[in-house]
Every structure is written in structure tokens, then in C-alpha cells.
Design brief:
The chain is mainly beta.
């Protein structure tokens, strides 16, 4: 191919519709080759389909029916999988003839498989089949015996190749390739035959056999055809003679001697292959020797048992054995047996059997001996065994296991629970072994249901073991009932059934039904008929259910121990619909805008609506009339209805009731209640409005209440607005008087200034008109000068004060009097003494310090206070001073009643 790469082959000229074969050319068949074809230029490869086929057997390109698009140059590409190299052939031009189009013709098979094709076991077999024809032939495959193809067989290349992986005996047979078009069909046939190289089933292995013994080597292989066998010894053919026999691959050599040692080969072969298995035979001859298999130094058994002594020295040929106890030869009797393998057996052992036993082994090459010491012990007995017990969950018990045993033996205790060894470390929270080394008592704490079962105490020594078992029944609250289902459902009832669960060894006494809905808080106990469900009843009727609500049910079993775990919930079921039974509550109303009647209620929760299509029927009428006005509210969540009509008078009473309905019908109405229509603003202003000056910073406004009929609703109070000469009426300040109050004090005003006021009433609908404006002028401000030169003196319990007269300025209110304010230093409440003089006399208890100050009073209010005067505790001596003053503090030896020479006012 490589040598012809540059040469252009002669053109292949065909008619349109004709089939053609393009030859790849001579290709070396070295290793595995694969073929492909380039169309015109690399890397445009010919795509195989039902019309084009590249044979991996010949390498040729087959075109079943040439089309104009096939015209071009074709190059064969050969790839070696061994060297991973490629070779390209010379291009072959394909051209169309101009003398017409090829007519239709029947399939002509150009690629077919051999009439007989041997296939090896496990190999992958590929059969090719392709035909030229017009129209393009269809290709199908079948076995002539009619058996279907197994799933492992794959059809590839548009059925141009069948692939059989892992070829087996059952894949052998006659295969047909059927090529067919509208002009006819042709069939190619070929037989696949199965063969298998020999394969070992059993090989031979090196052996060591004693002289005079017999060798048996089994050598077996499979294959198709069946393999034959030959044996070689040290590379030479093994001859069959008296001692040497070969049968179906098995070699037997009897009465071995040392010359039989050597390297042996078993050969299995058929026409497809040969396999070998080799092994070495060593024939040995030796005197008895106990070094490789010594006898036991010590055997301990209990009285009454059977003991076996082994005596298996290495010896070729096999040694003959005899036994002695001490120096006395042993012979067989009813208790003593000499075994065929050279061992010794003593049955029903007693104390006198204790001692040293010696085995004497001999063959023609020598003798040897070995000894075993036998110790006979008392049997182990359980003196206090565990017994069957019934316990309750949460209790603790001890299962006893106490024994009597031979003191020379070590003893161990183990416990099994339901066949499993108890791990005291892992299960320490419940299991503990107690009682010391001579006792194996088992304590079980805080018993649970899982601890119910069989307990076995196992006692072991070096020579024997004993066991005792007990059943522990744990009684607990019942397990959950099973298979809870709803058998029948109505609007208010449900028929429930269930199957009993485990009673945990205490019979169920009662069952309880629990229900849950999307509206309930968790699970709630359901009402049933009968009310008490006994433990032998597995069905009941749940009553008092709400219609049209989705329910789940579960069952709880109870026994003498207590209530158990609830069952799994039943499937969700919905009760049937029913007419609503509960009317809305809290029917009320009022408020709203002009000409409105507002009716409100608490919506009915979904679980009480009893069905779909739920809504409300709102009925109302003016008080004193007989005809109801009704309307329907279709939304179940709506909490109110507003009726608008210009004929509705403000704050008029209406009788109101609200009913319910759903798709099943109408339910009851609520009880009748009175609701007032919306209010309007008061229609008149308050009368008798007056304003009075109280001080330099406060005035009082008063008025007469408006008549109830003019309030147009529930009067909430009055609003007073006020402003001074320097303000605009629109920016006036406002204060409110709640309820039925008819006056209000306005403070924080400026002194000696005229203030204008007006009053109006208000309710929930708004405020009415203002009254006529009235005014009042605040007083001049109080004197700004404090009393000066305050002098005091104390005689006994009497305090005499004096001060200079305060003269008001021209813009201040005239002085009308004075106030003396005094308190103890430990109190916050102030006492006030009013006087028109510039002197005052106080009678005080001198058990505390006193703080005193003086201020002038006027129509405009109180003036500025003098500085505070501190009068300390005084003894009976006289004292005097002037303020402000700080004096020593004297202790008081007696308490005197406080006496005032003038009227005292206490101000808190």
C-alpha cells in the first residue's frame, strides 16, 4: 500500500443505481488490522450505513447502489493495532457512466462468512454479510434451529455484521444471513462450531508419603473435544505396571518405596492445545518421632466423663502403638479402648484413673514414647440457679447463679441474653455481675421491655461447663395498636376499627380514641360510644365531630401498668357536610360615616362552618318596626357589613341579627341586639360661654352643656380654642374637656394680655360649630422683689418672724399679703402660713431642723421667695438670728406640741 500511495488507480466507472466494490489492495496480514476509507480528502471518512459497508475481513468498500453523491476519489486506510501505524492506499476514482441508469435487480451477496467456522470458547465471533442490489437490500439474521438470539448478541453496521461475545457451547449452530429487496432475496449460510482448549479442573500438588503407603493423584481437565491424559516421571513416559495404575487421568502407586520419589507431570491435551500440571513426590522412611506432634502434658477431666489420649508421632511407615499407665501395660476392657489411629480412650472416668499414661510407638526403623498426666476432678454443679420471673418495667431484679466446683479449677461466669453474649461494659447502665468470684449473680437495673427473654448462666472450668436458663417476663404498658382505619364517616360520627398490638405481658383493659384536625392544638381525646372501650373491643363510634372537617384518629391502649404509646394515625378523612349550627357571636356595630349603619360580628371559624359555600345572612330593621331587611355576605372571613342609605338618620337605633348558611342550607340567627347608625357632628354651639382671669398666667373658660338632641350622637367632650391679641385666630391653640365637663383652666399664658376663646362640642363623627368669642385679660405679674431683712428669734418653742414690706412695681400686681412656707429638713411636704402682716409667729416642735422662706402674694400670683432660713434643733435656751443664717445644732430635751398663733395651711 505504502509503495503505491502516490499512484492514482484507474477510475471505476459505473452506472447510477449499480453496485460496486472498491478493492483495498494487497495488505499484510501481520497482527490485527482495521480498515477505513477516505472520501476525497482527509479527514472525510466514508460513513457506513445500509448502502455502504467496509469489510474488516477483506478491507474492501462495498456500495450496494451508487448515487451521484458517491462520485469522487476513495482511499483505503489500514491501521495496525500492534504497531499503532497506518498505511494509505492509492486513490481510486469513482465516476458515473453516461449511458443510462441501472435498473432494479435482486440482491447479490458480495460479503459472506465461511460455511464452517470453528470458534474458541470465550472468544468474540464476528460474522459479516453484505449484498449489492437495487433497491438497497435489507439484511436480517437468524438461527436455522429457530432459537432466538440471546441479549449478548449485537447487530452492528446496519445489520451488516453480527457480534457474539464470550462464545459458548450453546452459541454453536447454523446461522443464516437473509438479504432481500423488492426484486428478490438471497441467503448466505454458515455453521459455527465450538471448541475449547484443555482447562484444568484439578491439578496435582507436592506430597510427602511414607514408605509402603499408597499414593493417589487425581488430575482432571475440561475441553472440547474431551482431553486425553499422559503421565511423566522426571520427563520420561510413565509405564503402567502392577503397582502403577492410570485411569481417567488419576495416578495410583501402591506399596511405595524410596525409588518412587521424583518429579511427576500430568499432561491433558486435545487437538486445540496441551496443558501441564507438575508436582513432586517424596517417599520418606523414618523412626517414630514426637517432636513435631508431642503429646499433651496434662489433661483434666471430671468424674464420669470420657477422655481421649492422642498418640500421633511422625513415622514412616506408620508406627504401631501400645499404652502403659505408670509401669503397667494397658489392655482393652469395657472402659478402655485402643483406637485405630494409635490413641487411647477411657470411658466413665473415676478418681483411680488419675495418673501418667505413656504411648510406645515403633516401626522397623525405631521406637519412641510420649506421656500425658491425667487429673480427675469433681464435676461443677450449679447450687442456686436462676428461675423464671415476672417483673414490671422500671424494676430491678437479681438472677442468681451460684456453683459448687473442684477447688483446683479456675471458674468463669458468662451470661447470654436470647443467645447473645452479654457485654457488661457496653450494657453497664442495665446489667451488672454481682456476688464476688464464687458467684455469677446477674443484676438487671431499671428493666425495660427489651429485656424480656431467655437468660442463660454459663459456668466454665478447664474440664467442664454447666448452664442454667430462666425466662424473664417484663410487663409494661401496651404497645401501639395497629392498622387503625375509618370504616364509615358521617357529618358528626366516625366508625373506627383497629387491631390489637402487643400487650407486653399485661392484658389491655381499655382503649382511648384521640382525634386531630388542622384546627386543634395537638391530639385531643375523642368522645365515643360506648364511652369506655374495654380491652377486648376493637371498634367504636366517635361522636360529636364537626361536619366538613378533616380528621385523623389514633388509638391508645391501657393496661394495669399504664397507658402505652399511641398508634400510627389513620388516613385523613373528612366528615360530611351539614347545615351550620352556630350563629356569630359578639354581634355589635355603630360608627361609620354619615348615613351608614355598621354591623360587626366575630366570624365563624372554619371548623364550625360545616360545609362549603359558607356565608352570613345579615338582618336589620329600625327599632319599633316589624319588617326585616336582609342581605347576604358570601365571604366567611368578613367581620362586618355596612348599609348605606341617605334616609338613615344619625344615631338612630336599629335591631340587628346575623345568621349563617352553607350549601346544605341556612342555620340559626344570633340574638337580636341594638346598633346605632353613624353619628353626625353636633349641630349647635355651646351657650353661656364666659372667660375669667385667674392669675397672670391662667384663665378659666366655662359654658353651658348643649342639649342631648342637638349632639347627634354620643357627646365625647368639648374643644376650647384660644389666642391673644398678637395672634391670628387660625393659629390658635386648643385644649379639650372630656365627657360632661363644662369648664377648663388654661395655663401657661402671658401676663397682662387679652386672650380670646371659643368653644365647640365634638363626637365620633366630628366637631360642631364654635360658640361666640369671649375674652379675658390675664393679671399683672406678681411682685418680683422677695421679702427682705427676714429676722427670727426663738423663745422656748415659739418662733417669731419679721420682714420688710414688699412694694410692687408699676407693672406688677399689688401686694395682698404674705405666705410663710416651712418644713422639717427630713420631710418634703411644706406647711403654709398666710398673713397680711409683715410678722408671723410659729409654735414648733424642735426635734428636727426647720427650713423657712417667705413670699409676697397678689392677684397675679405668688411673688419671689426670700432666701431659705435654717433653724436648727434648739434646747430650752433662747436663740435669735436673721436670714440667711447658719447656727450650731443643739439637742432638744423635750418635745412640745406645735402651736400656731395664726391659721396654718398644709401644702403637700
Amino acid at each position: 500500500l505504502e509503495s503505491s500511495r502516490t499512484k492514482m488507480r484507474s477510475a471505476v466507472s459505473v452506472r447510477e443505481g449499480q453496485g460496486v466494490v472498491l478493492l483495498c489492495g494487497p495488505a499484510p496480514r501481520a497482527g490485527e488490522l482495521s480498515f477505513a476509507w477516505i472520501f476525497n480528502e482527509y479527514p472525510s471518512f466514508v460513513q457506513e450505513d445500509s448502502r455502504r459497508f467496509v469489510s474488516q475481513e477483506t478491507g474492501h468498500l462495498y456500495i450496494a447502489k451508487v448515487e451521484p453523491s458517491d462520485v469522487g476519489n476513495y482511499t483505503c486506510v489500514v491501521t495496525s493495532s500492534v504497531t499503532n501505524s497506518q498505511a494509505l492506499g492509492s486513490p481510486t476514482p469513482l465516476v458515473l457512466r453516461t449511458d443510462g441508469v441501472m435498473g432494479e435487480y435482486e440482491p447479490k451477496i458480495e460479503v459472506q462468512f465461511p460455511e464452517t467456522l470453528p470458534a474458541a470458547k470465550g472468544s468474540t465471533v464476528r460474522l459479516e454479510c453484505f449484498a449489492l442490489g437495487n433497491p438497497v437490500p435489507q439484511i436480517n439474521w437468524r438461527r436455522t434451529d429457530g432459537l432466538p438470539f440471546p441479549s449478548k448478541i449485537k447487530l452492528r453496521k446496519s445489520n451488516g455484521m453480527i457480534e457474539i461475545p464470550n462464545f459458548q457451547q450453546e452459541d454453536a449452530g447454523l446461522y443464516e444471513c437473509i438479504t432481500e429487496n423488492s426484486r428478490g432475496k438471497n441467503i448466505a449460510r454458515g455453521r459455527l462450531t465450538y471448541y475449547a482448549k484443555p482447562h484444568w479442573i484439578q491439578t496435582i500438588k507436592d506430597v510427602e508419603v511414607a514408605v509402603e503407603d499408597t499414593l493417589y493423584w487425581d488430575c482432571r481437565a475440561s475441553g472440547k473435544p474431551k482431553p486425553s491424559y499422559r503421565w511423566l516421571k522426571n520427563g520420561d513416559q510413565l509405564s503402567i505396571e502392577g503397582r502403577i495404575q492410570i485411569e481417567n487421568g488419576a495416578l495410583t502407586i501402591s506399596n511405595l518405596n524410596l525409588t518412587d520419589s521424583g518429579r511427576y507431570q500430568c499432561i491433558a491435551e486435545n487437538k486445540h492445545g496441551v496443558i501441564y500440571s507438575s508436582a513432586e513426590l517424596r517417599v520418606v522412611a523414618s523412626a517414630p518421632d514426637f517432636s513435631k506432634n508431642p503429646m499433651k502434658k496434662l489433661i483434666q477431666v471430671q468424674i464420669g466423663s470420657t477422655v481421649d489420649f492422642e498418640c500421633k508421632p511422625k513415622a514412616s511407615p506408620k508406627a504401631k502403638c501400645s499404652w502403659k499407665k505408670g509401669g503397667e501395660q494397658l489392655h482393652e476392657n469395657e472402659r478402655i479402648m485402643l483406637l485405630k489411629d494409635g490413641g487411647l480412650r477411657i470411658a466413665n472416668v473415676t478418681k483411680v484413673d488419675a495418673g501418667t499414661y505413656t504411648c510406645l510407638a515403633a516401626n522397623q526403623f525405631g521406637t519412641a514414647s510420649g506421656s500425658t498426666n491425667l487429673i480427675v476432678t469433681e464435676p461443677t454443679r450449679i447450687t442456686l440457679a436462676p428461675s423464671n420471673m415476672d417483673v414490671t418495667v422500671g424494676e430491678s431484679v437479681v438472677l442468681p447463679c451460684q456453683v459448687q466446683h473442684d477447688p483446683v479449677l479456675d471458674i468463669t461466669f458468662t451470661w447470654y441474653f436470647n443467645g447473645t453474649l452479654t457485654d457488661f461494659k457496653r450494657d453497664a447502665s442495665h446489667f451488672e455481675k454481682v456476688g464476688g468470684s464464687a458467684s455469677g449473680d446477674l443484676m438487671i437495673r431499671n428493666i425495660q421491655l427489651k429485656h424480656s427473654g431467655k437468660y442463660v448462666c454459663m459456668v466454665k472450668t478447664e474440664v467442664d461447663s454447666v448452664a442454667s436458663a430462666a425466662d424473664l417476663i417484663v410487663r409494661g404498658s401496651p404497645g401501639p395498636p395497629e392498622h387503625v382505619r375509618v370504616d364509615e364517616i358521617t357529618d358528626t360520627t366516625a366508625q373506627i376499627s383497629w387491631q390489637e398490638g402487643t400487650d407486653n405481658h399485661s392484658p389491655v383493659t381499655t382503649y382511648t380514641i384521640q382525634a386531630r384536625t388542622p384546627f386543634s392544638v395537638g391530639w385531643q381525646r375523642a368522645t365515643t360510644v360506648p364511652d369506655v372501650i374495654d380491652g377486648k373491643t376493637f371498634t367504636t363510634t366517635v361522636v360529636d365531630l364537626n361536619p366538613w372537617v378533616e380528621y385523623e384518629f389514633r388509638v391508645v391502649a391501657t393496661n394495669k401498668i399504664g397507658g402505652g404509646e399511641p398508634s400510627l394515625p389513620s388516613e385523613k378523612v373528612r366528615t360530611e357536610e351539614a347545615v351550620p349550627e352556630i350563629p356569630p357571636s359578639e354581634v355589635s356595630g355603630g360608627g361609620g360615616s354619615r348615613s351608614e349603619l355598621v354591623i360587626t360580628w366575630d366570624p365563624i371559624p372554619e371548623e364550625l362552618q360545616n360545609g362549603e359555600g359558607f356565608g352570613y345572612v345579615v338582618a336589620f330593621r329600625p327599632s319599633g318596626t316589624t319588617t326585616w331587611i336582609q342581605t347576604v355576605v358570601t365571604s366567611p372571613d368578613t367581620p362586618k357589613y355596612v348599609f348605606r342609605n341617605e334616609s338613615i338618620l344619625p344615631f338612630s337605633p336599629y335591631e340587628v341579627k346575623v345568621g349563617v348558611y352553607n350549601n346544605k342550607g341556612e342555620g340559626p340567627f344570633s340574638s337580636v341586639t341594638t346598633v346605632f347608625s353613624a353619628e353626625e357632628e353636633p349641630s349647635t354651639a355651646p351657650s353661656g360661654v364666659s372667660a375669667t382671669s385667674l392669675s397672670s398666667s391662667a384663665i378659666e373658660v366655662s359654658w353651658a352643656p348643649i342639649p342631648w338632641k342637638m349632639s347627634n350622637g354620643r357627646l365625647l367632650g368639648y374643644e376650647v380654642r384660644y389666642w391673644n391679641n398678637g395672634q391670628k385666630e387660625e393659629s390658635s391653640n386648643r385644649v379639650k374637656a372630656a365627657g360632661n365637663e363644662t369648664s377648663v383652666r388654661i395655663t401657661g399664658l402671658r401676663s397682662n394680655l387679652a386672650y380670646y376663646t371659643a368653644v365647640r362640642a365634638y363626637n365620633s363623627a366630628g366637631a360642631g360649630p364654635f360658640s361666640a368669642t369671649v375674652n379675658a385679660t390675664t393679671k399683672k405679674p406678681p411682685p418680683s422683689q422677695p421679702p427682705g431683712n427676714v429676722v427670727w428669734n426663738v423663745t422656748d418653742s415659739r418662733v417669731i418672724l419679721s420682714w420688710e414690706e414688699v412694694t410692687a412695681l408699676g407693672n406688677e400686681s399689688e401686694v395682698t399679703g404674705y405666705k410663710v412656707l416651712y418644713r422639717t429638713s427630713s420631710q418634703s411636704s411644706v406647711n403654709v402660713l398666710s398673713t397680711e402682716q409683715t410678722t408671723a409667729e410659729l409654735w414648733l416642735q424642735f426635734n428636727d431642723d426647720y427650713i423657712i422662706e417667705v413670699k409676697a402674694t397678689s392677684e397675679g400670683g405668688d411673688g419671689t421667695s426670700s432666701e431659705q432660713i435654717l433653724i436648727p434643733r434648739l434646747a430650752s435656751m433662747d436663740a435669735r438670728g436673721s436670714g440667711p443664717s447658719v447656727l450650731n445644732i443643739f439637742s432638744v430635751s423635750s418635745f412640745l406640741a406645735t402651736v400656731f398663733s395664726l391659721t396654718l395651711n398644709s401644702v403637700l
